[in-house]
Design a protein that fits this description.
Number of strands: 6
Radius of gyration: 13 Å
Order of helices and strands: EEHHHEEEEH
Structural class: alpha+beta
Distance between the termini: 27 Å
Largest sheet: 6 strands, mixed
Length: 106
Amino acid sequence: DRAHPECHQYHLAPRMRLATLPSFRRCLKDLPDERLAHVRDAMLRADQAYGQPHLHSGIGMRRLGKHLECRDALDNRLVFRRDWDALLFLFYGTHDEVKAFLRNRR
């Protein structure tokens, strides 16, 4: 298996595996269930839209260098990248938090 060794894997969507790194899970640990439902929905919508540019605008998907981001229903962002046969989610936060996260990953 080529999955990242630290990631949790979710087989929630029919198109690709969805995986999360510890950095993503740390962002979610104190969120209420309602917010977590929005995050899960955004992950599924990212999976459905990936590789279909006409669907990208509906979830605000855009490229950020080697990463991508999409919005949840509350306009927070999920940062992810394609990793073999999975979408690997790295970070969740506001626009400013995402900018700081990406700046620190260089």
